[in-house]
Specification:
Shape: globular
Number of domains: 1
Oligomer: single chain
Distance between the termini: 9 Å
Number of helices: 21
Strand content: under 5%
CATH topology: Growth Hormone, Chain: A
Structural class: mainly alpha
Helix content: over 70%
Order of helices and strands: HHHHHHHHHHHHHHHHHHHHH
CATH architecture: Up-down Bundle
Radius of gyration: 21 Å
Largest sheet: none
CATH class: Mainly Alpha
Amino acid sequence: MNRPISATPSAPPSLKHIAFASFIGTAIEFYDFYIYAFAAALVIGQVFFPASDPAAQALNAFLTFGIAFVARPVGAIVFGHFGDKIGRKSTLAASMLVMGISTLLIGCLPGYATLGTSAAVLLCVLRFCQGLGLGGEWGGAALLATEHAPVGKRGWFGMFPQLGPSIGFLFATLSFLGLSLVLSDTQFKTWGWRIPFFASALLVLVGLYVRFKLAETPVFAMVLAQQQSYPHSKQVPLFSLLKTHIKPVLLGALAIAVCYNLFYTATVFCLSYGTKTLHIPRSDFLGMLCVAVLFMAAATPISAKLSDQFGRKPVLLISSFFAIILGFALAPLMASGSSLQITVFLSLALLLMGATFAPMGAFLPEQFATATRYTGAGLAYQLGGILGASFAPAASQWLVDAGGLTWVGYYLSGMAGLSFLAVLCMRETLDTNL
């Protein structure tokens, strides 16, 4: 599996090109996703739900944030179907187009002052479309990397799509930080928040150019050549998946839930809480997140390398265990109001997010057969998003209003414990032959 085999006569791409293509796609699509997360925490409620009180605005904004997570499993099924039937390459390009167009249109969408309640309805539709596009992205990007990977290095190559989200998040954070520094609050709320959405269109063009230069993955190309795949069968990949691989789908979803919960608690909820309750300046909190995401980026390759040496399960179990402990530190560190202590919590949360997230790039695809791998890995990943992240900011906001920050910490620990048990029940896949 060291040498890519193309379904076309064109020369196969280099492993560096493949790694970059799997990385750049997730970086761009998660950039699109994260800029909405920041907008939801900072301005969406005021632009699209101005008739509400501040608490209701925040809750409504977080609910629109959660809509995309409901759409993501649908995207995983739709794009996974075509990815398993016609190939990884073209399906990945289509998912990126859906995501990019939806993001651009959100940036163009007038607010409540212009369209009234129709603005909120259209926002929800576009947010759903964002989720569809992202739902098809991760599974294909992970397969692009792991199905090209040399023997013994699937964890390392599966790391590249996992590294994309941290870089996408960093660019999203820097874009909002830059705007916060150069624009007044009025300018930011009126039009400044839209700039990162417009910028995503240029990034999508770059991603499409890189991906169109790829060949089909060698594993899928072999199956096509031997006519042993579902592209030449009447059976739908999803139906076969539900018959034979429902257990790894459900366990995989539970296993990855801790990644999502760590990330969106530390970013979306904590950003909203820090700026609105603790009254930390927006630019200061975004600066803390810029520092914290560096720990996530550093932990990702280290965790991936360790998963190739010692196995996926040991790395995931240890990381999830520390995430359980971290939940008990959330309240004292966040409630302190200290920039240093808050940065420590954010950094630890994102470090553990990277540590739990990196092995998943290989671990989830390795649970499934080639003919259903795109659908299976993508569906498990996106169902985990519903469980771990879709309403995590809204749930955390409700918990902090009802019982205080301590309950948000219990929520984080509970999700980490659930993922720990799921990984414990899954099979080790280090030596699996794709």
